Amino acid sequence: MSANKESWGSRVGLILAMAGNAVGLGNFLRFPVQAVQNGGGAFIIPYLVCFLVMGIPLLWIEWSMGRFGGRFGNHSTPYIVDTMGKHRLWKYIGVFGIWTNIAVAAYYCYLESWTLSYVFHSILGTFNGLDQEGVASFFDTYVSIGDSTLGIPYEAVVFYLLCLLLNTWILSKGLSGGVERVAKIGMPLLIVFGMFLAYKGFTIKAGEAGASFDSAVGLNFLWTPDYTQLWSPTVWLAAAGQIFFTLSVGMGTIHCYASYVRSKDDIALNAMSAGWMNEFVEVVLGASILIPISIGYLGIDRVTELVQQGGLGLAFKTLPFLFTQWGEVLGAIAGVMWFGLLFFAGITSSLAMGTPWIGFLQDEFNWRRKPAAWSFGLIVLILGMPTVLFFHYGVFDEYDYWAGTVSLVVFALVETILFAWVFGMDRGWREINSGADIKVPDIYKYIIKFVTPVLLLWVFIGSLVTPKGGDWGKALSGDWVLDDSSIINKIKNSSLKRQLAEATDPAVIEQLQET
Ligand code: PHE
Ligand code: NA
């Protein structure tokens, strides 16, 4: 219980803050890449099904958990779940809801700081006159901290600090005075920038401004359904993972934001507004920029090849070069819009990652907002340093996998069980519907109770022990080999990698490489 009496300023502000939480770098960088990696048109059907039977239920669950906990003066996941399940264990499980945010923030803020720097470089015209190689090597130099040829020594570090300071400062201004205000400015601008770039993505013509293909080539690639892949569990797992990441469920940010909603206010409709806004930005805007523009210039094969190397390359090495093909002025505008929209998407999400920790310190230790915000900045700085300094060694992906993927699924499963089976579905259903401005379809009562947990369990087990190539048929008939993408193999491989990095004796290294 605390003296923390903060709340949202207005309904619009709440929805925009929640939408800002959800809409993030995942919408513009992760979604298109996942779609391409999983066969373009094959991805979208599982993706939409996962949204309907896991995403939407989890939104309602988390919003109502948050509002419920907030009624008792709790604004962080451990104490919110503690008010719902009476066993002491729940509180400790709830620590996930603080920890995951801090761990994700540690790599997310670094990526966010690149976008800030690239806005400036677009304004300065840094990319003008460079060829594709030049733009790509600009990025490589940027992330290899030591050798700075960009004029600002340690530029990546400088922008990282700047970005953390900005986050901390906004967080210290409070919910309605900081977070909500940024969302009210950032979200509309993001939509305007996104619409402009999506328009460009839609109107690319072969032979104009250096493009080789019509925009239809890229769009067809993404949107022509491919039913052959429909039953591949790997595609389903990727789709579920993307839904969690993009909606920010299984993290604790929604609990925290919703705990500041007044107890008589609607959550059923608000949750849908924010959730569908995220889907619009992801499926309509997110799918119409990075991939169609890149394919317009490079063709499907080259883009698929680049995407296999990760989505960040396309966004930071390829697009800034393609924009220069549109002429100096339009190129600069497009660059500012692209990196500007990424920055707004990023910051409204990283602010959300900070609030659970701040709410926790305020509630339990009576900290004031300002020192609590600074402590968040400091923790992220310390935890984030490895991603900054060792970016090339895959530290970034390691963080994303454990904090940004695995723990979301685990926590979502646990909280669904808590909500539907421990707290009880009848009480849960009353919570969702109390103060509701829409009638929630009754079928969701059964979906939340049965379908969501079973699917979550399937996703979890499926990613724990994925058989080689995702071929369950073969695996179940006795030919059982774990795929490298299974969690169990990841645990094995990442500790192997660590030992390899530490080993100096050539005989030991050779032995490790063989295993
Ligand atoms: N949903 C955000 C995105 O799509 C990421 C995020 C995860 C934000 C967790 C907050 C909490 O980028
Ligand atoms: Na998102």
UniProtKB/TrEMBL annotation:
Q: How does it sit in the membrane?
A: Multi-pass membrane protein
Q: Which UniProt keywords apply?
A: Membrane, Transmembrane, Transmembrane helix, Transport
Question: What stretches pass through the bilayer?
Answer: 12-29, 41-61, 89-108, 152-170, 182-199, 235-260, 280-300, 329-352, 373-395, 401-425, 446-465
InterPro entries, A to Z: Na/ntran_symport, SNS_sf
Which domain of life does this protein belong to? Answer: Bacteria
The reply on keyword Transport is yes
Compartment(s): Membrane
Q: What are the annotated GO cellular component locations?
A: membrane
Q: Which Pfam families match?
A: SNF (PF00209)
Its recorded name reads SNF family Na+-dependent transporter
Output the lineage of the source organism.
Bacteria, Pseudomonadati, Bacteroidota, Cytophagia, Cytophagales
